[in-house]
Design a protein that fits this description.
single chain, alpha/beta, 11 helices, 8-stranded parallel beta sheet, binds ligand GYZ
Amino acid sequence: KRTITCIGLFLLAIIQLQAQNAIKKEVKYGQLTELPRQDEAMKKWRSNRFGQFIHWGLYAIPGGIWEGKTYKYAAEFLKSSAGISTATWDSLQYQFNPVKFDAKEWAKMAKDMGVKYVTITTKHHEGFCLWPSKYTDFDIENTPYRKDLLGEFIKAYNEEGIDVSLYYSVLDWHHPDWRYKLNTEEDKAAFERLKAFTENQLLELLERYPTVKGLWFDGTWDQCWKDNGKFSYDLEKKLKEKNPGLIVNSRMRADEYGSRHFDSNGVLMGDYESGYERRLPNPWDVAVTKNDWECCMTIPENQWGYHKDWTLTHIKTSNELIEMLVQCTSQNGNFLLNFGPRGEGNFREKEVKLAKEIGDWMDDNSSVIYNCGYAGLKKQSWGYFTKSSDSDDAINMVVFNKPINGKYRVKLNKGSIIKRAYLLSKPKKSFNLEEIANGEYFLDDVKGKCKDPFVIIIELEDKDSKKFKQKALT
Ligand SMILES: C[C@@H]1O/C(=N\OC(=O)Nc2ccccc2)[C@@H](O)[C@H](O)[C@@H]1O
């Protein structure tokens, strides 16, 4: 009877496996490169961990308010939320004169905040280009500012040692050939021109700015683009041939069945997943650590472009934002924190203050962020583990919740032996250790107030030490 059951279960497993394979579709325009990428450019992207996002365009001039009315929706969508005609909106171009823009000052603020990369909107959905483009007059050259603003920006950030990635919206409200859906032959002919315009602009950006490390695509959710899986697949190939090592997010493409971010077989497209927008994975989610990914985050609840009124929603504190950065790192993700400068080219005081507070924390603790990632341990109540890619005998504990009894319960992998535990800020003072089970300890709290998140370093006995062979507790 037992033999029959075993044979039955075995056959069931075979059938299930065959069924799964049968569902696998043949995807021609899905993943372009073997992931996770292990080339130097991607390793650098991964080790950067912390980036600054900048949303800047004509929308920063009205800042969410139109004809005296405040619109709560995202300020970079004011054109649609206030029902403004394209002609009226586009005339903002003649007001764009960021006299307070100082690229070096922006880059210094970013450097001091501790970011290793920046992603800036070269063209958002409105279609206005922050660089002088050969393919449109709706660009910085045709504003009172005139100069190559994007070029100044890239030069200043590169001089601070910050990598630059360019955000580009395929969706273009200004361009006469934009079509949401391709219902008629005329739609299709127009969209062919839009596709050529898009390709020309992207190649132009890579030609003009060869130090650029990545392209961050957006505005790719409409049917028109999802119907063009082969075109966007070929375009990603062309862009990567032009700029070897280029890093592209998962929002660029859909496969030939219209599946975005992940192809129809669930395989990630682009070089990292960029679906975590204003949200993070569950902190205990281990599956997310398999791929490279990035969370992009706003300081208010839902404003990417500058909004004049920041009383509309909760404004995140630096500790909230630091916790998000640490959580991303703990799960092999990058954290891209957004800033929305004013139309005149300066940042609101609150953003400058938050950048300073985060930078002060990074001054003391960046070693648990840069070149760090998932430690292969379960999420625990006091905070997050991170581990440097360069060492296997040290683990970082980043504490956000001090235990009420002053004892940190730390569960490592079975067989792990803690050699020493100490505060990153006070390396000479070791925690008392109490081993409570195989690989599980209590660390006695080190007396002292900690108003900010802090780091405990766990040094492990290396696997070959004689101590490691000692009989671990049950
Ligand atoms: C970063 C944001 O990106 C956007 N749109 O978001 C998305 O498309 N989000 C998204 C897409 C796929 C999965 C999850 C979120 C833009 O409309 C918005 O103005 C801002 O630039």
